[in-house]
Design brief:
128 residues, alpha+beta, Cytidine Deaminase, domain 2
Length: 128
């Protein structure tokens, strides 16, 4: 069941990404959302190493444009299980939000998943 404005809640996103929770490498996904906030596509943007995945706005927004997304939720895992955002996570989020504003595609949330928990950067106030 969607949250406010039809958008998926962080808990719903976490529930949908069961396969990546125990991954031994970082995976970075973009969930493309339609105008009603419903998922229209999930794309793997980057598969990294143990503690990093290279992410560039070009690849994230390519998927969003290709699937005609009105907004996106980006998600990546921390193989360590610790979902505390790193400095790099915060930097990537700021770059994506800025790029999204320029392109007219809202970055609704950035969710970090671990084996048994998640952290929403929107809920932390990093994204408003």
């Amino acid at each position: 069941m969607p949250g406010a404005k039809g958008l998926m809640t962080p808990a719903q996103v976490f529930a949908r990404l069961t396969s990546v929770r125990r991954a031994r490498q970082e995976h970075f996904f973009v969930l493309c959302l339609n105008i009603r906030g419903r998922q229209i596509k999930k794309e793997l943007v980057s598969k990294g190493i143990l503690n990093a995945a290279i992410v560039h706005p070009r690849e994230v927004f390519y998927a969003a444009i290709l699937h005609n997304a009105a907004s996106i939720i980006v998600v990546h895992n921390h193989p360590s299980g610790d979902t505390e955002p790193s400095t790099e996570d915060l930097d990537v989020t700021a770059r994506l939000v800025k790029a999204g504003q320029i392109m007219g595609i809202e970055v609704y949330d950035h969710i970090i998943v671990g084996e048994g928990s998640y952290t929403s950067l929107r809920e932390l106030g990093v994204i408003s």
